[in-house]
Amino acid sequence: DTAVSQTPKYLVTQMGNDKSIKCEQNLGHDTMYWYKQDSKKFLKIMFSYNNKELIINETVPNRFSPKSPDKAHLNLHINSLELGDSAVYFCASSQDLVNYEQYFGPGTRLTVT
Amino acid sequence: QKEVEQDPGPLSVPEGAIVSLNCTYSNSAFQYFMWYRQYSRKGPELLMYTYSSGNKEDGRFTAQVDKSSKYISLFIRDSQPSDSATYLCACNSGGSYIPTFGRGTSLIVHP
After folding, report:
1. N or C: which end of chain B has fewer CB within 10 A?
2. Which of B45, B49, B97 is the mutation pick for testing A, counting most A CBs within 10 A?
3. Between chains, do B98 and A4 touch, taking CB under 8 Å as contact?
């Protein structure tokens, strides 16, 4: 039973398209995150939601818009995709904001051509 | 200078060796220290979690934190080929919601 799941696992698309990535966690956690991992393996936080409310919005282009319909789901929509958006996107969750143990999904490998 | 530094490796060792993986950090406010293991094309998986200075042991893994020198280590005893992965350290202060990750060290344990 997967704790944090993401779909799709792979996404290949052309520049200018709009795409969405979905994330679900069944751990009963309050807090969810989106990270971007670039080719050099750096994990960079993009967004954090707590109980469906946006808590952290790092310096991310406004082409990226997260949405949390409930505390078990956090989706990421990306408009007007650019070559530089190619990366692996990870969803993660933690019990709450003060619990630093994060559980990661398997990642979505986005390739923009 | 990045807040959390790790040598990317790869570090290649024979099976059965003791492995030492290290991170240095610059933010003296960091109090929480974590090690994640990431297999190729998978998400990071929390391995060890420590608070402040000291050692923590879990099976073949020992995490060590030296706050005076801003140095954290992960030791793996009797390393196995299945330990081959990238190991990321992460640090957090009490006032931040988000840990700061190192770039990870790639470990290869060959039979």
Report:
1. N
2. B97
3. no
Instruction: Identify the burial level of B46 via C-beta atoms within 10 angstroms of its C-beta, where 0-12 means exposed, 13-18 middle and 19 or more buried.
Output: middle
Cβ contact B104–A48 (<8 Å)? no
* pLDDT tens, residue by residue, A13-55: 999 999 999 999 999 999 999 999 988 788 999 999 988 888 8
Round to whole Å and give the CA distance between B70 and B1: 14
The residue of chain A nearest to residue B42, with distances taken between CA atoms, is A106
Among B32, B86, B103, the residue with its CB nearest the CB of A100 is B32
Distance CA B53, CA B70 (A): 10
Nearest one of A28, A44, A99, A103 to B37, comparing CA atoms: A103
What SS3 state is found at A59? Answer: coil
